[in-house]
Amino acid sequence: MNPRYRKPMIAGNWKMNMLASELKAYADALKPASVPAKWCETLLCVPAPLVPGAARAFKSCRVAVGGQNLSEYASGAYTGEISGPMLRDAGAEYVIVGHSERRAMFGETDEEVNRKVKAALDCGLKPVICVGETRAQKMLGVTAELVTLQLRAAVSGLTVREAKQLVVAYEPVWAIGTGMSSTPEEVEQVASVLRAVIRRTYGAAVARGTRILYGGSMNEKNASELLAQPDIDGGLVGGASLHPDKFAQIIAAARGE
Ligand code: PEP
Question: What is the dihedral of CA 78, 82, 83, 87, to 10 degrees?
């Protein structure tokens, strides 16, 4: 982390878990850990129906709320879709775009991810853009090329002002939900590749300010050494974010406690 230029962020991704009735107990358990938010921004990306309740429940512990996906369209005849303006209206500040589960299970392409990034920015949501390689791609040694292509496509055609809103998450697909995280050295190498993509596209000042998170089996035990890397500015945490005590320990690690 480089707190001089970037405020660390610990983001949780609840995926398709949790109910509205569980929000209060979670917020009560997390509260002592999340105040003050001066040194670390905390975000929970919750299922869309939980966004309004989460925005209310987490307000007093200064945890921002995000969605996990959005439609590339702002409104219209798209049954079952949820638009960026709807998430914003419900209290979301951020939205995950291009998570590997959406790419793999719902066929999201790089072009669609780019349209969703633009749809998010258009309504004032800050996108958390996910990129990462599969195990097969890692074995082939193409990680750097692949994440470069993914990120270049995702951020194509933005203004500098828009690019400043982005958060990037490096999430090796093989590390998600498996209990096997990447090594701090490997993560740092990829994060510096991603920062270079932002630098080449939007300039040094934007690159210096862009937060790059690591995601993939980050937990309360490995968070400190992952977060110690200079280009890793936080974490995108799946499984461990469902447990407020573990999530609180990861937040503490981001604060250097
Ligand atoms: C994720 O879903 O983005 C993720 C990183 O999950 P986990 O922490 O469970 O690997």
Answer: 160
Segments making up each domain of the chain, as ranges? 9-254
Instruction: For the full predicted model, state whether its pTM sits above 0.90.
Output: yes
Distance, in Å, from the CA atom of 32 to the CA atom of 126, rounded to the nearest integer, reads: 26
Tell the residue number behind the tokens 């303006």, with chain if given: 85
Looking from the CA of residue 241, the nearest atom of ligand 1 is 8
Which fold is adopted by the domain 9-254?
A: TIM Barrel (3.20.20)
2, pLDDT greater than 90: no
Structure tokens at 54: 């989460």
State percent of the chain over pLDDT 70.
Answer: 98
**How far apart, in whole angstroms, are the C-alpha atoms of residue 177 and residue 236?**
12
Question: Does any ligand 1 atom lie closer than 6 A to the CB of residue 45?
Answer: no
CA 83 to ligand 1 center in whole angstroms:
23
